[in-house]
Queue: 3 jobs
Job 1
Amino acid sequence: MCRTQTFYSMRLKGKIALITGAAGGIGSATALCFAEEGARVILADIDTDGCEAVCARIREQGGDAMCAFVDVNSEELIVGLFSSIREQYGRLDILVAVAGGDLDPFTPADEITGSSIDSNLALNLRSCMLCCREAARLMKPQQYGRIVTMSSLVYRGAQGQFSYAAAKGGIASYTRALAMTLGSSNITVNALAPALVDVPAFRKALGSERWEVLLRESGSRYPLNRVAQPLDVAKAALFLASDDAAFITGQILEISGGARL
Ligand SMILES: NC(=O)c1ccc[n+]([C@@H]2O[C@H](COP(=O)([O-])OP(=O)(O)OC[C@H]3O[C@@H](n4cnc5c(N)ncnc54)[C@H](O)[C@@H]3O)[C@@H](O)[C@H]2O)c1
């Protein structure tokens, strides 16, 4: 699915890669893409059935995958996940921290509540920071790592998305700070910042008809005249996780079809 040229060697052969939010649109495309490129993938999500389905697809295609139920709001569960990775694999080469989403979209600025701010920051920013902390603990001694965080084009600011924009902006700043710190341990840290992505969760929430209209309207405003598919994001994650991007760190990669130039 993500391989376009047959003469490439597998870009992640033998790498151990953890992907959070792996049952979702972007996470599952990333897991499938990484497995296809030879990585041994660990899929973490609260959606156990969704995760198992992605794992089964990977195994059917001859890949190596395992699932873990992890609520990224729980520091204890995150710590447990990384210690089981340490026990089972003894190392971690790649983290792609995808889990997240806007829990409070389009609430007017003068109506947002403290608890909705807390939950959006916890799901998006705090979880990312805790996963990166645990990844760094595994990666520093091995003097190798690729960390890819999930920001959003919304990090530049978006009407009606307040705590989500703050969280994704926080992820962008945190990514840069972490890159400055971990570079000397041969660990790169970069963020993905997609514009609208055509994921099944949005289609389900809005209904196919409304979603198609929104896709067309949004896409027509982008120079490339379409919105992103999950695979567009997965391929960007693959590049940043691969050794092709060995000298790229601290970057916020906008995957936006040129939406904001
Ligand atoms: N779809 C877009 O337009 C878009 C654009 C920019 C950024 N993003 C970001 O991409 C990431 C993935 O989003 P998606 O579009 O694939 O949506 P999605 O809803 O398909 O995927 C999100 C996944 O995260 C999981 N998740 C949610 N809460 C969790 C928790 N507490 N613990 C563990 N897992 C949890 C969900 O079960 C789901 O599988 C999110 O961080 C989102 O903010 C999405």
Job 2
Amino acid sequence: MTIIEALVDLQEVDGRIRELETELKDLPRRKALETARLSGVSADLQAAKANHEYAAKRVKSYEEDAKALREKIQQLKQTQMGLKTNKEYQDFSIQIDLVNHDLEATENNAIAAMDDLPGAQARIDDAQAKYDSEKGGVDAFCAEIDERIAKVKAELDEAMKERAEKAKAVNDPKFMLYYERLRTKRWPVVSALTHDGVCDGCHLVQPPSVGQLADANAKNGEAGKPQSIVACTMCGRILYRA
Ligand SMILES: [Zn+2]
């Protein structure tokens, strides 16, 4: 195997590693998006519950007021029974009427407030149903993502082992160093030099000297002689004659 062939082999594994790493970065993001969407639905449910709580508090408050007014009327009536004069009795009747009027208004308010409750409860039920159904979907989606993450990690471990083997096969430190340096900036690192003399990585037409070097390299490879690094004059990719 020539050094270029060994590099192309290594590059094939590195290509898979790159894809797996990209996916591994992307998967948690997709999970976070789904979870965020669910927390929006959850916020709707919380708001519906708060709204119901507020409506129920209003009802309770009017009911308490009505109870206090009824007790007040009871007291007034009891006091009224012990009164001696007609004038005092009539004064109390007027007071009792006034309180009765308040009571009626308060009871009407309580009834009106109670009318809000079924709607508020329906809003909770709707929000709860939506949350339950969304949560089921999101949980299943997240479980799938977790499974995929585990699978990608396992594949990545395998690929890294394979890479170590392939890297050993590139037994020329000069080539290896060049490849490793360029790998973070350019991908792929090793590109074909087309028959038109174009770098397949950046598509720049190479000077004839580059084509001659690439041809010589190919011949050296066939003859089992050492190969040299032929690089694109524009992007620096390692070029080989396809
Ligand atoms: Zn190039």
Job 3
Amino acid sequence: MDRLRDKVAIVTGAGSGIGRAVAVAFGREGAKVLVSDSRTDGGGEATVTAIQAEGGEALYVAADVSKEDDVIRLVRAAVDRFGRLDVMVNNAGVMRVGPVTELTEADFDLVTSVNQKGTFFGIKHAARAMMKTGGGSIINTSSIAADHGQHGGVVYAATKGAILSMTLTAASELAEYGIRVNAVQPGAISTGILAASGVRETPDRAARIEQGTPLGHRRGLPEEVAPLYVYLASDESGFVTGQKLAVDGGISADSHVI
Ligand SMILES: NC(=O)c1ccc[n+]([C@@H]2O[C@H](COP(=O)([O-])OP(=O)(O)OC[C@H]3O[C@@H](n4cnc5c(N)ncnc54)[C@H](O)[C@@H]3O)[C@@H](O)[C@H]2O)c1
């Protein structure tokens, strides 16, 4: 339980879902965790409580990742409180779903500013801090939607593709500073992101996901995704950079057509 002993980590979008599971797993492995989110329902604070309940060290800082000043403040808070930054998880994300003929400019601007611009700011300012201490690990939450067409996801999937692209470039540029940059591609994971985006779960949609997920014919749990983040944050992955790694129960292994 000390794979991240003494490492300092920031997890954005950690007030719920995958981010919360990652932050809790990091705390369990001995990391000092700066939990961040933009939500105002106490989700971020609840994540801190969950980490502390297991004897871990954590701090909550509210931030909107689409605002560069917020991300600068976030990184500064980690360094001020814990002395350094070793791991940055750019995980905050939003989704808007609809036909390409119906999605609006406002949808485009929102999803792009949180998912793509937020990840850019996170990479940029985490890397600046990590350069001062000899390296670190940046982990970006992409999606398997980045590799495939996704009905209704013309904007969302594109931001997840942009995250993969930024991961490659940043991995290449930052390697000389000892900074590794990788992307995680979750499949269909049971979180509140669909509800938050206004999508109503239908029996059709649930059945499609169950049929299309070879392992277990079900959605994954955030706790099943988190161990990959622990690996990428730890020194065990010290020679791994510029990679995209899916946790999707096998969805992407099959074309589902032939
Ligand atoms: N759930 C899935 O099936 C799935 C699949 C692939 C990728 N993902 C990605 O995983 C990540 C986490 O999503 P989740 O499924 O856990 O959903 P979630 O809604 O539980 O978590 C997303 C979190 O991001 C926060 N957030 C939204 N806008 C923000 C902003 N501007 N600044 C800071 N925080 C903000 C939300 O408040 C929320 O707590 C997202 O990037 C999402 O795109 C999810």
